[in-house]
Design a protein that fits this description.
By secondary structure, the chain is an alpha+beta fold. It has eleven helices and twelve strands. Strands 10-9-8-11-12 form a five-stranded antiparallel β-sheet. Helix 1 (16-32) crosses helix 11. The longest helix is centred in the first third of the chain and has 17 residues, at 16-32.
């Protein structure tokens, strides 16, 4: 086994571009700390290349499909290569908004009311919404996608039809949920410890893909989130609970809406971005952990049988 660290980046998801940014930042940090690092694009016959490289550890910098849904994790497990972030089961659960929500709900974590809509069954929407006591505006999104890709707020039936049609070109099922107004609060976990909560004030309609990754979107970050001491502790505890319920490892980030004094968990992300605009490094920095230390910690936390 060599001392080589392979940073897996790129891949085949809609977040390929962002994954390269995460990979570049993490690779640079590791090289600064004296590690021998190679970046490998996780597409095509990358598994054969990986086997030839015989890395000591794989730093998983992938986002989205195949990178954070248990797929690449199962490959690394089969090869007995230690890797960063969550394992196969936790990754696939967190990526699937339907399954993770069922677990959260069962364990008394508040999630928005939602329903699943199968391709060709959009005619049942109003009936289904009535049954679930969901009213417009609604949010529609793919069940397994990251970075707010394909997420739309629909204020009426006409908007829904247009956006649903768009999503159905790529997906067989979508999640339809009640729109929760209120404040956007996100929390980072490092190991078993919640680091802190940040509030995001997007200038856009919500914290979408552009708000996340474009400095031109000028999303305001408030760290720490201006919550009462009790509420701050509460959201940290909720995040730790969500992280543990799914069996996550390493670094995760949970996204909440805070409305009428209640926290609604929207999703848990097992492969948070590590770009200069990303939230986990910002939260860690506030807690006295610089970017290089954070990345090295993630590397040292790597294992298989996760």
């Amino acid at each position: 086994m060599s001392n080589l660290i392979v940073v897996l980046a790129g891949g085949l998801s809609g977040e390929r571009k962002i994954s390269f940014l995460t990979g570049k930042a993490c690779s640079k940090a590791l090289k600064k700390r004296g590690y021998k690092v190679i970046t490998l694009d996780a597409k095509g016959y990358f598994v054969e290349k990986l086997k030839k490289l015989k890395p000591k550890i794989v730093f998983n910098a992938l986002h989205g499909k195949y990178g954070e849904d248990g797929f690449v994790q199962s490959i690394l497990e089969s090869q007995k290569i230690p890797y960063t972030h969550s394992g196969v089961f936790a990754s696939s659960l967190a990526m699937n908004k339907e399954l993770s929500r069922l677990i959260f709900k069962k364990n008394n974590l508040k999630v928005p009311k939602y329903l699943l809509l199968q391709k060709g069954h959009e005619g049942n929407l109003i009936k289904k919404m009535k049954n679930k006591k969901i009213k417009f505006p609604i949010v529609i999104k793919p069940i397994s996608e990251g970075s707010s890709l394909g997420v739309y707020i629909c204020k009426n039936r006409m908007q829904f039809k247009a956006k649903y049609k768009k999503l159905m070109k790529e997906y067989d099922r979508v999640l339809v949920e009640e729109y929760i107004p209120g404040r956007e609060i996100q929390v980072a976990v490092m190991g078993e410890k919640p680091l802190g909560a940040i509030e995001l004030v997007p200038r856009r309609e919500f914290y979408d893909y552009a708000a996340k990754y474009s400095s031109a979107a000028r999303t305001k970050h408030i760290m720490p989130a201006p919550l009462s001491q009790n509420k701050y502790k509460e959201v940290l505890a909720l995040t730790k609970r969500a992280h543990q319920l799914l069996g996550c490892r390493g670094i995760t980030r949970s996204d909440f809406r805070f409305f009428k004094n209640k926290f609604y968990l929207l999703e848990l992300n097992t492969q948070p971005g590590m770009t200069k605009l990303s939230l986990v490094p910002e939260i860690a920095q506030y807690c006295g952990i610089n970017f290089e230390d954070l990345v090295v910690w993630m590397l040292k936390d790597a294992s298989y049988n996760r």
